[in-house]
Design a protein that fits this description.
Blueprint lengths: L4 H10 L7 H12 L4 H11 L3 H10 L11 E6 L2 H5 L2 H12 L12 E6 L11 E3 L2 E3 L4 H31 L3 H8 L7 H9 L1
Parallel strand pairs: 1-2
Antiparallel strand pairs: 1-3, 3-4
Bound molecules: FE2/S2 (inorganic) cluster.
The site of FE2/S2 (inorganic) cluster has 12 residues, from helix 5.
């Protein structure tokens, strides 16, 4: 997703650009983009009048923040002891093959980022895969296939909806045409008059 500095500015304004709200601002930007884009960090430093190096210091200190682009969905495989002995390596291998990426990487279509973690604190459910905050316990390669299929389907249907919406907007009549149809008076601009002359 492209960084919109207007949206980042809105986030900053939500906290009145207070230095004390730096963590909250970075958290909101992270939530919006799944990472902290450099231009957003620069804008935060500028608006909060905080040295850029300090903002980077905070951003790199907390594990919750990412300074690298991440996918729309974050898949985390627990590789802690309990998960490891119950088959986490097989699960990780299956996901790597499915997505075609190594842990720490993002798919080319920016849909998935694969990560590993040492323990998710739910060892009784081992082996665990976490996708976008949802815990999938007692995972098997088959379960993993089903999970990712579900996410792919979701992505496809969202894309379809967006396409439809776009096509709908294109087919919508212009304001003047709509007014003509409704019988309301049409305000003619210079360009519409020129167009009419050409006809
Ligand atoms: S080792 Fe995986 S949840 Fe604890």
């Amino acid at each position: 997703m492209k960084t919109s500095l207007r949206k980042v500015t809105k986030i900053i304004q939500r906290y009145q650009a207070k230095k004390t709200k730096l963590l909250a601002i970075l958290t909101d930007i992270q939530t919006k983009y799944n990472w902290l884009p450099p231009d957003a960090i620069e804008l935060v430093a500028e608006k909060l009048c905080v040295p850029l190096i300090d903002v980077y210091g905070v951003a790199s200190f907390y594990h919750a923040f990412s300074l690298n682009p991440r996918g729309k969905h974050i898949a985390t495989v627990c590789s802690g002891t309990a998960c490891h002995v119950r088959g986490a390596p097989i699960i990780l291998d299956r996901i790597q093959t499915k997505l075609g990426i190594e842990p720490g990487c993002t798919t080319k279509d920016d849909q998935f980022t694969l990560e590993t973690v040492n323990c998710l604190g739910a060892c009784a459910l081992a082996p665990i895969v976490l996708v976008d905050g949802h815990y999938y316990g007692q995972s098997t390669p088959q379960k993993v296939d089903a999970i990712f299929l579900q996410y792919r389907k979701k992505t496809k249907s969202v894309k379809k909806m967006k396409k439809k919406k776009k096509a709908g907007t294109k087919n919508q009549p212009s304001k003047n045409t709509a007014k003509k149809r409704s019988g309301k008076k049409v305000i003619k601009t210079k360009s519409t008059r020129k167009q009419e002359k050409r006809k």
